[in-house]
Amino acid sequence: MLKFVLSIQAIYMITREETGNSFSSKLISWYEENKRDLPWRGITDTYKIWLSEIILQQTRVVQGMDYFLRITGRFPDVKSLAEADEDEVLKYWQGLGYYSRARNLHHAARTVMSDFGGKMPVKYSELLKLKGIGEYTAAAISSFAGNDPHPVVDGNVFRFLSRYLGIAEPIDTGKGKKLFTETAGKLMDRSRAGQFNQAIMEFGALQCIPGIPDCKICPFSDSCVAFSENKQAAYPVKQNKVSVKNRYFHYFHIIIGSRTLIYKRDRKDIWQNLYEFPMIETTEAMTFEELKQTSKFQKFFGQEEALRFRIRKNKKHVLTHRIIWAVFYDVHLEKVPESLKSYQLIEEKDIDSYAIHRLMEEYLEDAAGS
Known about the structure:
It is a single chain. By secondary structure, the chain is of the alpha+beta class. It has 15 helices and seven strands. It has helices at residues 16-34, 46-55, 61-74, 78-83, 86-93, 100-115, 124-127, 135-146, 155-165, 174-187, 193-206, 225-229, 288-292, 295-301, 358-369; strands spanning 245-256, 259-264, 275-276, 279-282, 309-318, 322-332, 344-347. Strands 1, 2, 3, 4, 5, 6 and 7 form a seven-stranded mixed beta sheet that branches. A hairpin with a 2-residue loop joins strand 1 and strand 2 (259-264). Helix 2 (46-55) packs across helix 3 and helix 9 (155-165) packs across helix 11 (193-206). It starts with 15 loop residues before the first helix and ends with a helix.
């Protein structure tokens, strides 16, 4: 096996003979001995393969399995998913986060019914026409369901190939992604594309893990650049740092007898189409006295000094690109103020029937236990 720092030209040094007879065979042999028993493995149902791939985009396998079984239990095929209301789909997705995945899944299911006669497409080019399916997901589905020889490149693949071949090209650039995709394609045994893709992802997930893996038991250690140079932690290389934005949310748990007020977030923002309590967002952290002086607070509650607000909970909620600093207040009212008539008045015991985001869920869990 070649030992070099791979350049954009160097991938063409990986020969077809090496691809089919060495790397792929060794990788697939490892996979057959070590693969996990997962409910979406060894099936040809394109719908369920698609669902599993969408779930696993931003979710650990252990958590994803429960949701896969739960969602397929309610929506066993694309028709049942397409016919459901979005609110119900989001409720079944609740807790998985990245809710645009669920909205896109629902939209795509309806597209399958309207444009593909209710039959899930298997071809790579057709899968790309469905909302929420990009090149990686289309490659995974088409190879797993139809052995279509399109390489998958996810975080696990980036890590494994960058270490194995010493690829110093940053993975978060267009050039880097193109290089890794072409490299994986050169190494792939095209006659066993589905197995190869499953194997290379599984290898990164179980063997070539982040940090310092156990290279002593790795079947590729004798030809791995990173291992030979003791630089496993140096790969993969990233060029850009993710900027994190702080946001400040002030929630009002308004209690009117046995009822409370909620609303659906309908703006294109985090948690779109999920329910929450009335909320004021500020550009910086504020005490309650400072919050009372804002125009938004005045619009909600006016100058009514008799209202009793109690800080119920302070929460820090971390998302990929945002940190939410949330304060929950509870306030008891006798009736719904005119300023809040547009909000939905529900029995508090019925809030579990609505799709809510994880921050709301955590608050309600804490409130129930206090």
